[in-house]
Amino acid sequence: MQPDIEIYLLSCPTERIISWLEQDFSVLDMRKPSDIATKLHLDWNGRDIPVTILEQAAGKRFTSVWFDSEQTPWESDMECAKRAFEALQCEVRCNYQGWQEDGQEDPDLWWRINANGEGPYIWR
User: Fold this and answer.
1) Are 47 and 31 in contact (CB under 8 A)?
2) Per residue, what are the HEC states of 5-67?
3) Does the structure show a pLDDT above 80 at 108?
C-alpha cells in the first residue's frame, strides 16, 4: 500500500477534476488558498482524505492531484490514473514504479495514459 497517491492531468480544468472526485467521494470541505491551489477534504467510507489540486505543477499545462492518505480506493498511483483517464478523457501521468522505501526508482520514468493507449514514458 502506498502512503499517498499522486497523478498529473494534462490540460484538465480543476472544476472537471472536482466533478470527477464527487462521483466517488463526498466533499467535506473545500478552500482555495491561492489562484492555482485547491484543498479539499473528501470522505470515502468514513475516512477523511486530504487532497490538494495544484495547477501548473509540472509546466503550465499539468495539474497535480495529490491524495495525502494511504486509505484511498486505489492500491497505486497507476490504478488511480487509469480511473481518472476513464472519467476525464485527458492525458494522465503518474510515477511508474510507485513509492518505494529504498528510493531506487528512476525519477524520470513515468506511466502515461492518453487516447493513444498507455505505457512507460520518460518525462524530463
Assistant:
1) no
2) EEEEEECCCHHHHHHHHHHHCEEEEEECCCCCEEEEEEEECCEEEEEEEEEEEECCCEEEEEE
3) no
Residue 3 confidence (pLDDT) above 60? yes
Helix (H) or strand (E) holding 78: helix 77-88
- Within 8 A by CB and 6+ apart from 59, the residues are none
Q: In sequence order, what are the residues at sequence separation of 6 or more whose Cβ sits closer than 8 angstroms to the Cβ of residue 89?
A: 115
The residue range of the domain holding 91 is: 5-122
Give the chain's domain count: 1
Inter-residue contact 94 to 81 (CB < 8 Å) = yes
User: For residue 120, is pLDDT > 80?
Assistant: yes
* Residue that is written with C-alpha cell 513509492 in the block: 99
Q: Give the pLDDT confidence score for residue 58 in this predicted structure.
A: 85
Give the tens place of pLDDT for each residue, 69-83: 999 999 999 999 999
